Queue: 4 jobs
Job 1
Amino acid sequence: MKRNSKLALLLVLVMLATVFVACNKQEGSTAEGGSQNMIMATGGTTGTYYSLGGTLAQLMNSNAEGVNITAQSTGASVENCRLLATGEAELALLQNDVLDYAYSGTELFDAKIENLRAVASLYPEVIQIVGTEDIKTLEDLKGKKVSVGAAGSGTEANARQILNAAGITYDDIQKFDLSFSESADAFKDGQIDAFFVTAGVPNASIQDITAQHKISIIEVGSDIAADLIANYPFYIEFNIPGGTYPGVDEDVNTVAVLAVLATNAEESEDTIYNITKALYENLEDLANSHAKGKEIVLEKSADGISIPFHPGAEKYLKEAGVIK
């Protein structure tokens, strides 16, 4: 009963917000000179989403006509879906798996948020399973103290899906629901044996751990990866090169989700077209301004997208030959 009430309330809020956003677009929220004010929801102030969002906003403001975009710190992917749905943000950086859950009303969401739209895939967010030196395989996690990420987080969903694909359930491990920073601290103190983190490679916090501790990065084999991708099309297979982390000399096969730029269905086709064009026709400037910019390429802009593209983004990506 409680779940049904939450579902009904969220649906009502999204419908009301959609009407509000549509009215707001008609009235035209503008800045000086007639530009449309837009919020880009990102993540915490110390994270990649926030710094990249600021760089993207500057790039788009300089190269896309009629927009004035401001990057805003948020609670990241799950919150960003809500902000897009209610019109509190017009653009957002988030993980493509969380975007899929929100659109379909599964995993982390009790109701579908159907006004979400994709703009483009940006770069891989790699599922890295860090373990003590003696843990070599997923099977070795059985009986161990394992942090699967904060309860209700995208990382937790990644962990559960990967373990299940390997035939492992939470009953087979001693499960801890810790955030990434909590997991790193607990691992350093010997309170856990392994933890999952979904982040770019290399990750500075994992590198920091290797200064005092020997680690392993546990492989997700190609057979398990293929099973995951068949069931969850937002995953891609990813290879972590040997030497990425001290003491991990061999390549490690794993899977990744993707950081994506998203919007809502109420944004105008012209606005999102201009933003998408500004992004992909100024990649050299982006690469010179932010480290993640080097990983953003036009050819991969449609990878891992499992929800509809916004018509403006779709128009540009068709012109560029990325999608048909």
Job 2
Amino acid sequence: MTSARHAEGPTREALVATAGETISRGSKSFSLASRLFDRPTRERAWLLYAWCRHCDDLADGQTLGHDARTVIDAHERLSLIRIGTDRALRGVPAGEMPFDALRIVAAEAAIPERFIWDHVAGFELDAQDWRPRTEADMIRYCYHVAGAVGCMMAVIMGVSPDDEETLGQASDLGIAFQLANIARDLSDDHAIDRCYLPIEWLVEMDVPPGEHMKPHFRERMAVLAGRLERLVERYEASARQGARKLPFRSRWAVLTAAGIYGDIAREVARRGATAWDSRVVTRRRAKLGWVARSWWEARRG
């Protein structure tokens, strides 16, 4: 006979433990920042990350954010994401850790479903082989794949779903993160026939879309990386304003993550044409520096 516990799926404690392992393996930066939260917020952040990470990996054919490849069954993968997410939001145990994690955190934190489905819409854009034409298109994509996650995290940290100003600033932090990713991952994305730079930007630089990572265009890509870095700074500044409204430990975590990820964009811009010769990372010593600096900034409110 199947036990009631087995029928209901793993316990919350087990889900949190597995989600914690997932974030520690999938993102050392987010894992470090998440440990600055109080325990309830930290656990919910881990649960949300587990779902986001799983959906991203499924959509991109990768493992814990690495080794992305071109997928030939993108719409089938999107369907799995949609079905699993819908079941989770209806409270149905999935027997799959990421969707059960979403089921728990969405109920506990009362995350508005609009943000969850906005995030799923980002995977739909990739499944359609969508490319941004304008800067506004790129920012819209960044909202779906990361800004919506910022909104969900804000709700987890206690921000009211009706506080549009603070939610917008939380979204800006996610957008800043994604812009940094775009700058860092230009070469990796090109390898799987993706490009998140606006076509208008490439045309302005007289670079044929699809050929932007050829060696003789690297100097021009460095110019665009600088442009991305300036956008990161703008969105990061907005997020830092929003962080002032958060409880101390949440503010500390957010400011730390903002600094760590901002350093990625700054380092890409600093390296110029050599930025994509090796993967840009923020070293542990620099991360710990942001932990310390952000503590002081968070104390000042």
Job 3
Amino acid sequence: MIKKEMIAMLLAGGQGSRLGVLTSKVAKPAVAFGGKYRIIDFPLSNCINSGIDTVGVLTQYQPLRLNAHIGIGIPWDLDRNIGGVTVLPPYEKSGNSEWYTGTANAIYQNLDYIDSYNPDYVLILSGDHIYKMDYEVMLDYHKANQADVTIATMPVPYEEASRFGIVLTDDDNKITEFEEKPEQPRGNLASMGIYIFSWKILKEALITKSEQSNCDFGKHIIPYCFEKGDRMFAYEYNGYWKDVGTLSSYWEANMELINIIPVFNLYEEFWRIYTKSDTLPPQYISEYAKVERSIVSEGTSIYGEVYNSVIGAGVTIEEGAVVRDSIIMQNTSIGKGTKINKAIIAENVNIGFDVELGIGDEAPSKLEPKIYNSGLVTIGENSVVPNHVKVGKNTAISGITVAEDYPNGILGSGEYIIKAGDVK
């Protein structure tokens, strides 16, 4: 029988609804990041850099691009005969077929997959965070404490603590209390959604709580193990970690990559971030172009000006166009004379000429003020913006739009255009 000391289960099925039109057609872990990566590349790279060679990726919402990106795992050296990476969508079982209804339910539905490796430990990961972590160090900590469950934690500002599961610990970092998203947090040590379980403990908890609807780690499994008296420890992490679950945090995390000394360094030799790279020609920057403090991926042609921006592969920025403080994902084209200010533009978008994005004063979004804020213009993939239009801040566009969609040629701040068939 195959025996692995620890295998990883990577939860990548989420829609990421707080990213608005960016995730209307693609799962959040498959969203582009940093010019050439996708969000899921970070936990996958952490696995291979930590010596974990068996990873189950649980997909559900819009899995097509994620599946194509992961393939058989070659970029991460996860194309193994034994182990490697396995994509685990929900499947029909005898008697019933059901979607994954919660993080723990997704793991429960794949007990046979885990059992086939007979692991001592199971590492549970999220597919939508940007960070570098050596999971082997966390496993050593788990063993040293003879823990049943180890939760990776990090201190967060008190005002943000109610968004997280919060743990209280004694002097030995043993967890004495766990509260999921408390309204009045008594501590600020937050769960990062990264867990190491001893497999026997996890299996018993999943089977016991499997009847629970929407069975979830933070709401059901962790409290169950705690009440049962399992040995639970907090592993405190102090490196860079970003939940890119909102448009503003996603924009900020990309912008942090272009600092002179980036907070999060993509260029370290000893901890590489691996990704599936297409074979593309080199980038081209014309004699009239100007590029300052930006990441520009391969296959991109720049004839205009780019400042403080992250430009994906295969993008064309035509003469006279000026792009500032923006994220432009792959295979998008920006027409002549177009001015773009603080925008997130998804893949395969066509922006016409003499367009202005990000004009005027801010106004709250009429679509989803909690999603479209921070003054950003957000454009979903495969969208078209016609020539000569002006677009304000906190706006959202999705679909093939035409001049008639813009009254007097303007989409004011806080307004949106979502074409039929496109989801907000």
Job 4
Amino acid sequence: MKNIPEVKLGIVAVSRNCFPMTLSESRRIKVVENYKEKYGEIYECPTVVENEIHMKKALTEVKEAGCNALVVYLGNFGPETPETLMAKYFDGPVMYMAAAEESGDNLLGGRGDAYCGMLNCSYNLKLRGLRAYIPEYPVGTPAECADMINDFLPIARTVIGLNNLKIISFGPRPQDFIACNAPIKQLYNVGVEIEENSELDLFESFNNHAGDERIPAIVKEMEEELGAGNKKPEILSKLAQYELTLLDWVEEHRGSREFVAIAGKCWPAFQTQFGFVPCYVNSRLTAQGIPVSCEVDIYGALSEFIGTCVSLDAVTLLDINNTVPADMFDAEIKGKTNYTLRDTFMGFHCGNTASGKLVSCEMKYQMIMARSLPVEVTNGTLEGDIIPGDITFFRLQSTADAQLRAYVAEGEVLDVRTRSFGAIGIFAIPEMGRFYRHVLVEKNYPHHGAVAFGHFGKAIFEVFKYLGVEDIGFNQPKGMMYKTENPYA
């Protein structure tokens, strides 16, 4: 996939001046040995930081080595001022972790007190208003510290991506889609740029791509991808023209930013003017690592990009759409799993999910739109049941008064035929009914949720924390009540 950052990690050990510097140095060496053996390369900074002069020297070394993510390792108690200033002056995501003591036989000259030092470090970070990743239990053996660094990788990759991301949008959201509001202040607060365009600008660019010599090659790609599902061959050349329009727009408008996501318009006038719906093209770009959200959902595109960086895989954006009929649940789900009816729902969108995430796919027309429009202008959806397996449902959203909120919930797509239309699946999330009421409804989330294919809740939750999101909802288990849950219900 393209459009995703590459992370080059560096590690710097720190030492308090009343502790042996060699203690931090020797412990760092063991951490690096474990990391390289299990996970791969990491730059080992030779300077151990004991004061601010060392801090400046170490930062120069990691920057010259090309590092864009930094691990600060407290091999002993550590110097709280220079170690936290590293987060201030390093241009990229930073994590902190500390060394566990090694042996009961070495608790006189060889005790490091890093467990204590981590408290001072976190306090100093907070005083300075600095963001950093601190693992759930940030003190460990060299092997455990190597695992912590590996957990940091998807978080670092996502933060780097957001700091270099531009979201390109086309047109205002459709009427009666106020839920997809997008106050832009919080985009800037998390490091994202936004370029808002008229759909008329997009239409002009699309018309200028008529007869583009690259269209036949894109059509051939589409034919190969669709195979027997190529039920609307007459529309492929227009879809190819639109795909090239978006790709060229990205290259011409990324400006100073390295990565791009798109929030696109798809109705109400899109179909009649362009002559198709863009769902299939959206799916193809998303599969390449360029998320394209529907209905000008800017925070939906942002959420998709987060999921792409974390999972290194295609994601999708779905409506949290409809209940599973009770008779269908009783016949095909009940007794085969531990889920209740209220744990299940159907996630749906017209046809924006990548072909590789569908059991089988067919190019079709958009049934809902075709109820009031000629069928031929609604062609372009990619339909099929979503592949069964683990998923993570999540979203980062700014409220109407520009407060960041987020949610994340792990679950699965069940191996049950949906018998419906669009890109659709039967989802199961433990305690979904309560989560739906006391997070999604109570906190005014829009109907769109991003879906990553796999369980990535741990990393996504940490990304939200790193971004400073204080209100992160999740599907709380039975016995853990939501603040708004009625104890007598």
